[in-house]
Write a structure and sequence with these properties.
This protein is mainly beta. The chain is about 15% helix and about 60% strand. It is built from 1 helix and 11 strands. The longest helix is centred in the first third of the chain and has 32 residues, at about 1-35.
Length: about 240
């Protein structure tokens, strides 16, 4: 029975990644050929903190994601965010989150910042296969987005799949490959795009510290649709994950 479960998980993994790979290639081709597509380089820095609470057998935890995003090779500010949540660990590698986020977006002169708020719910699943030093991470997130002084609540779904591989079972160094797509369900006054609106493909090199904290450097190919043209941005990321 255990062997059958392992084979089933591996088959599911291969099927999911085949679909994601095909989707990524399709989106890359579409963005590269789209009329008016623009390219640029952005720098993102992120700190993730997860702190276990001494209740409910330490299954309850607090989560914080804080980011700074710069464009034009790091010369101009584009966005900062603060995304706290409370989470609960379920059996068999599952977990759930409930959070609130604030985004500070740079805008044109005379209106330098536009504040966006989000209420979000998230489910995750983690699976590791130690003999091969590999791991699989699935994250499904639902967001309810609204902007100060603007009418309308935008509902968006995000699905991310990540595959990690350590150079050998006891190595703290490894690589990660991930893909995330965005689906927007409705049109509002401040956001006209609906349907498939964004894709993020990531390749990362990471180092695990004792205690589970992780430092990661990554490249992300970000494709997104605007009201005028598809755009593709190259993003260099530094991310630090702290587990307490």
């Amino acid at each position: 029975m255990k062997r059958a479960c392992k084979h089933l998980r591996l088959r599911v993994f291969c099927s999911v990644w085949s679909v994601l790979f095909a989707t990524t290639v399709l989106m890359y081709t579409r963005s590269a050929s789209a009329e008016g597509a623009s390219k640029g380089i952005s720098l993102w820095s992120t700190i993730f903190i997860e702190s276990r609470l001494p209740v409910l057998e330490r299954k309850l935890f607090l989560y914080l994601d804080s980011q700074m995003r710069l464009a034009d090779g790091g010369l101009s500010y584009t966005q900062g965010l603060f995304r706290p949540a409370v989470g609960y660990t379920l059996p068999h590698g599952f977990g759930v989150y409930l959070g609130y986020a604030t985004f500070f977006n740079a805008q044109e002169a005379g209106n330098p910042f536009q504040i966006e708020h989000r209420i979000w719910q998230q489910g995750v699943w983690k699976w590791k296969y130690k003999p091969f030093a590999i791991g699989l991470y699935l994250r499904s997130r639902l967001e309810q987005r609204f902007v100060a002084d603007q009418a309308g609540l935008s509902v968006r779904f995000r699905q991310m799949v990540r595959f990690d591989w350590h150079f050998h079972p006891n190595s703290p160094v490894g690589i990660g490959i991930a893909d995330e797509f965005f689906l927007t369900f409705n049109e509002v006054s401040w956001s006209k795009s609906t349907g498939f609106t964004q894709n993020r493909a990531v390749a990362a090199l990471f180092y695990l510290f004792s205690g589970g904290s992780r430092l990661e450097f990554a490249y992300m190919n970000q494709w997104f649709r605007t009201s005028t043209a598809d755009q593709m941005v190259h993003v260099i990321m530094a991310r630090y994950f702290i587990f307490i």
